[in-house]
Amino acid sequence: MTPRTRARSGYRCTECGAQAAQWVGRCPTCQAWGTLEEAAAPAAPARARVVAGAPSTPARRISEVDLDVARARPTGVAELDRVLGGGLVPGAVVLLAGEPGVGKSTLLLSVATRAAREGAPTLYVTGEESAAQV
């Protein structure tokens, strides 16, 4: 059985070939008036998802997983290491949540600073703060 597909339509400029999701009087690329015509886009599987940068790995039996690779690296903050089961595991993602002002950024920036000083690749990602707030 094949997954259902969603038919999508869009608009294509007859002058320059630019595509737009909705009709507008003027092509946003070449600025020509009245040149957008409805064009069917290729149908995509209804449940298809593309995750940018995520490598695909085949399913494996748990007995085939090399457990030595997943050793936790201590953060240098004893209580955080205890909560994380010994520290941060390379390749893992940790979501830290809490009320505003409780010190999430301060804690993680100190952990990130220590990791960077030890030569570990470090990335601080936030979904709620601007760069100036961090």
Automatic annotation (TrEMBL):
The keyword Metal-binding is annotated on this UniProt entry: yes
Gene Ontology CC annotations of this record: cytosol
Every SF4 helicase domain range: 66-134
Pfam families: ATPase (PF06745), Zn_ribbon_LapB (PF18073)
This protein's UniProt keywords: Metal-binding
Protein name (Swiss-Prot/TrEMBL): DNA repair protein RadA
Domain of life per record: Bacteria
Organism: uncultured Pseudonocardia sp
Keyword Translocase: no
RecA family profile domain location: 69-134
GO MF terms, alphabetically ordered: ATP binding; ATP-dependent DNA damage sensor activity; DNA binding; DNA helicase activity; metal ion binding
UniProt record, GO biological process: DNA replication; recombinational repair
